[in-house]
Amino acid sequence: MSALVLDAGAFLAVERGDREMVARLRIAQQRDIGLRSNAVVVAQVWRDRAGRQAALARLLRAVEVCAVDERTGREAGVLLGRAGTSDVVDATVALLARPGDRILTSDPEDITRLVQAGGVPAAVVRC
């Protein structure tokens, strides 16, 4: 496995103190497995201007947060059309996956459809 791709569900699991998710991410870091997400996912989960989302802030320091630009937006739209789904954020998450990655998601059905439509051999794991 080359990286764990995190959707909003993975971040929210950490924020609510889900021990299994925290352990999974800690083991990934110990094994030098990268953590990847994007700025749109961060927007879905970040709500606190005062910094009280400490667990989330700590996790973000360890995550490669990729930009979502016009090209990514267009690719996401095409992928949504191929997969027959409509969640733009899910599409941007699926686009982050590379061969051998695992996508940690609270929505495995839609993400699986998107990954299959994109032809990327990545595993989808419910969080």
Automatic annotation (TrEMBL):
InterPro entries, A to Z: PIN-like_dom_sf
Superkingdom of source: Bacteria
Protein name: Twitching motility protein PilT
Lineage, highest ranks first: Bacteria, Bacillati, Actinomycetota, Actinomycetes, Frankiales
